[in-house]
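The freezer alarm interrupted the setup, so I double-checked each line after restarting. Inputs confirmed:
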Amino acid sequence: GENVEQHPSTLSVQEGDSAVIKCTYSDSASNYFPWYKQELGKGPQLIIDIRSNVGEKKDQRIAVTLNKTAKHFSLHITETQPEDSAVYFCAAKGPNFNKFYFGSGTKLNVKP
Amino acid sequence: EAGVTQSPTHLIKTRGQQVTLRCSPISGHTSVYWYQQALGLGLQFLLWYDEGEERNRGNFPPRFSGRQFPNYSSELNVNALELEDSALYLCASSLAPLAVYNEQFFGPGTRLTVL
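Predicted 3D structure, all chains:
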């Protein structure tokens, strides 16, 4: 089955700096890669996703890149703000099943 | 439009007891997923239901079971509770699996503590 690895496990940045979280996956058939943000005491919320036929996607301060050859994808947050502090999860899903494989999470701390 | 709802919010049980968690998906969603999130860890896939049938199961013992009702709501049952079952149990829903790219929407979770 699929195996998703996520790094780093914790990330601390100064407000206004950029943050990058990286994930690798093992199954080349995976074709959908969402990113979730989980705030304390809440369920994960989808913040951005990318499909295997796209190399990059942006939504305001958030961007995701996908390298299918290397089987890795990354989340980029620019101009970080204290409210970006949360745990971020990457995930991967293949085309023939509805099972999502999640990374272990990255705790992002944005210092004011 | 209401999101995914879960009940109860918190639950405290003792070892050996049984527990039932409930989930109502977003209106129109037929697929329901259950995940276990132990403290400080990632999400571990438990079960996937669609159209009332169990479609896939994660690497969990048989004492974890569930069902999906005709209205697409779902229950997760855990028998013979063990201390390591203490976790946040998350439910998510999505559109029918025939859709190629399915977004999952998560509920707020049920925090289960086993003493």
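Quick read of the result. The mean pLDDT of chain A is 93.
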